[in-house]
Amino acid sequence: MASSTEGHDPAKRGGLLADTRGLPWHSLGEGIAFQLLRYCDVTGQWALYVRMAPGSRILTHRHLSSGEFFVTRGELIYDAGSAPAGVYGYEALGEVHSEARAEVETEYLFLGHGAVAFTGEDDKIDFILDAAFLKNLAEGQHMQSVTANTG
Which domain holds residue 103? Predict the structure, then answer.
């Protein structure tokens, strides 16, 4: 039987298996990496398995669509509170998060239902993280970092 990572195509339409034990990791910036499980050029949806190193922090961002996550290891700390392993979270359209960090090694599944806008200090959009951004990053293109390290 073929491995579920053999020939993994995250853009595949229809049924899909993605074995995180064998998929490559891609950097989103210092201390944060992801495995691209799935993305759809039609709907804009995407699925990631994310690993955050202790001290890593995701920059301020605004959800231009909803997102969902499930923490499998460690603890994600963000504006809504603490999400340790076993916690599911939902992030609504329009929510802004200025705090999203990990104090311990943390892993979670993230399901994005569309784009996320990363903003600078002036609240203007610096860049958009969407299915195309993730596809390009996974293909080796240099992209904007979504992270800041707090030490």
Answer: 32-141
CATH of the domain at 70: 2.60.120.10
Q: How many structural domains is the chain composed of?
A: 1
Cα dist from 69 to 9, 65, 107, whole Å: 22, 14, 10
* pLDDT lower than 70: segments of the chain: 1-6, 148-151
Nearest residue to 112 (alpha-carbon basis) of 9, 23, 39: 39
Residue 91 identity: E
Q: Is residue 16 included in any domain, yes or no?
A: no
pLDDT tens digits, 27-67: 888 999 999 999 998 999 999 999 999 999 998 999 999 99
* Interatomic CA distance for residues 118 and 141, integer angstroms: 18
